[in-house]
Structure formats: structure tokens, C-alpha cells
Amino acid sequence: MTNLLEKSDAKFNPEIEILKITLLSEDLRTRAFTRIGFYFSFYVALAVGAIAVLLQVVGDRFEFSAFGIAFTAGIFYMGWLIRGSDIEYYKQLGHIGELISTIEKGEKLGEFEDLVKKFIGAPSIPPH
To answer: Is residue 4 domain-resident?
Structure first.
């Protein structure tokens, strides 16, 4: 049985390079959606908890209006966080085009580990 790693170093294989881009873009998308889901679920949990407390202790209109103001501020803050995640995702996604151009020129992208470090800033992938 031949060693796959030895073969891949011998010549340029565009299918492997495209696979690297696909894996990287899926990881970027997954991270962005996970971040947005976390922000959304965290805010919903806080809002439900606040409503439950509010219903128990509502005594006057001041408490109700304070809750309304805090809830509105929370919505704007959540929107700001989600927008920041979108901007970061689209910045990273914009660099994918550069990688595609590199493949079109017939050049290798390098090791997948290095691409992950460059785009995501993740620590090195542990060896198997």
C-alpha cells in the first residue's frame, strides 16, 4: 500500500486543494452560526428569566418601564454582537477568493494546519 502523504507531495492536486478550501469555509460558517446561536439563546434565557422575576415582583410602573428599557437595550446589544459576527465572517470569507485564485494559478495552498491558523487563529492541530 502506498503512502498517501508521499504521493500528495509529488505533484499538485487541485481536488485536494479545493477540499482544503471547502473544509475551511465550512469551519468558518459553523463558527459564525454557533456564535450567533449562542448570543441569541443567551439573550432569550436572560429575557425569560427577567420576565419571570418581573411577573413575581411587579409593584409599580417604574419596574415595568425599567424592564422595557433594559429589554430594548438588550435587543440592540444583541444586534450589535450579531452584526460584529457577520462582519468578521464576511471578512474571512472574502479571503477564500484569494485561495481560489491561488489554485487557479496552479499553486499549492500549503498545509491545512497553516490555513486554519491563518484564518481562525486556532492553536496547532495535535498529531494523531
So the answer is: no
Cell of 39: 448570543
Number of domains in the chain: 1
Determine whether 99 is exposed, middle or buried from the number of CB atoms within 10 Å of its CB (0-12, 13-18, 19+). Answer: buried
- Determine, yes or no, domain membership for 52: no
Domain that holds residue 25: 15-47+75-120
**Cell numbers found for residue 22:** 471547502
- The DSSP code sequence of 46-95 is HHHHHHHHHHHH--SHHHHHHHHHHHHHHHHHHHHHHHHHHHHHHHHHHH
Helix or strand or coil: residue 121?
coil
Q: Is 7 within a domain?
A: no
Residue 27 lies in a domain: yes
pLDDT by residue (tens digit) across 4-38?
Answer: 444 445 578 889 999 999 999 998 899 889 999 99
Report d(CA 83, CA 51) in Å as an integer.
26
Query: Which positions ≥6 away from 46 have C-beta within 8 Å?
Result: 74
- Better pLDDT: 69 or 67: 69
